[in-house]
Amino acid sequence: MRRNKYPLILQECLEKHLLYGESLEDIAAEYPQWGNRLSVDLKAAIYLNNQTNLFNPRAGFISSSKKYLLEKIACGSNTHIIENRRIPSMRLLLPRLLLPFLVVVVILFSGTGVIFAAQSSFPGDSLFPIKTAVEGIRLALTFDEVKDAELHLQYAQDYMVACATLISQERQHDAAEAVQLYEYHVTRTARLLLEQSTQNPVVFSYLLMDFNNRLLQDLETFHILLPGEF
Amino acid sequence: MLNDQDPRIDDSYLVRLAKSGDLDAFGILYDRYADGIYRFVYVHLSETLEAEDLTSEVFLRAWKHLPKYKEQGHPFSAFLFKIARNAIIDYRRKLKPKINRAQELLESTVNHSLNPGSIIENSHERQLLNATINHLQEDYRLVLVLRFINGLSPREVAEIMGRSEGAIRVLQFRALKAIRRKWDLIEKEDHEKE
What we know:
The complex is a heterodimer.
Chain A: H1 2-18, H2 24-30, H3 35-50, H4 61-74, H5 82-86, H6 90-110, H7 112-119, H8 128-140, H9 145-168, H10 172-199, H11 201-225
Helix pairs in contact in A: 1-3, 4-6, 6-7, 9-10, 9-11, 10-11
Chain B: H1 11-19, H2 23-45, H3 48-65, H4 76-95, H5 101-109, H6 121-134, H7 138-149, H8 154-161, H9 165-193
């Protein structure tokens, strides 16, 4: 009987803490008969609840994926509304056209200087959004998967350098963003390589070797940067 | 123009608008739930890129199946998480036959020790937590992720998992016990290594 009642008690206690903010000590005092067992279960649950931010998506993912998703739906292949299938509305086409347009405007009015300056910007810098926009455009305009993989690998290296610089400047938060972008480009390269493994085994083996060498170089850099970690 | 901050705009209203083809309304639903769906998918797959692709896939499926969704006391979040759960199952099913030599080679190259994310303490903790959660049996994993990582109510979890609230309470208690055991085991192994 006592055993069957425990899940209900645990649930009540979780609600008291998660919804009403009661402290663990107060809750434990209300249920002395459950002693340490209740306390450790609550601590485990609260620990998990506090880790939500560890699993959040990278910065900018929600807004960019939302734009892409809505465009895809509006373009028709996945819509359940027949009249929306034919012509994507201007409301959805505009944001798609806006980015290249803005890049052209920036080039026209400020010369290529801004674009050039943006290339050496890091996460957290004011010109950084221009750098990521240019990267996105370059990737979008690359139709060869091998070149795509090389470009991703090059960006990964850039972010590794950015990470090193940001750590030396004690900009930990920006460094974390650089690491996330590094991971993103490395993973994207790995995926493209995997596709090449079946399509073009010779190119694959060459790229894999290059990829492996570069990762080892990165590891050495991280070793210098953070000697205690490796 | 719809304003997401307007408290009068609840999910049911947005779903009704989305069903009639309003993409703005569906966009607000995306803003509300994409984070949660991503976390749910990520914990199961442990891969950023896959989790991103699958999150978009979940919302595409949701849009397709929206006409079939009848509220009648079933929250929209439950509808989405059910789709996410099925999408993960489909993804794993498709993935299995693809495991070949090339993939093994790649995995040996991009292994955890080479993962630069681990230099940031958060990434290391995330990987560790992910690994622990992924070693649990499916229903324990689901209940922990939905209840604590995603902060859903027992009723919503019950709805997604197709169980009663009472069963979810029991699962929750067993799952917490199981993950505590895993942590104890890891701690013990770490002590032995030292």
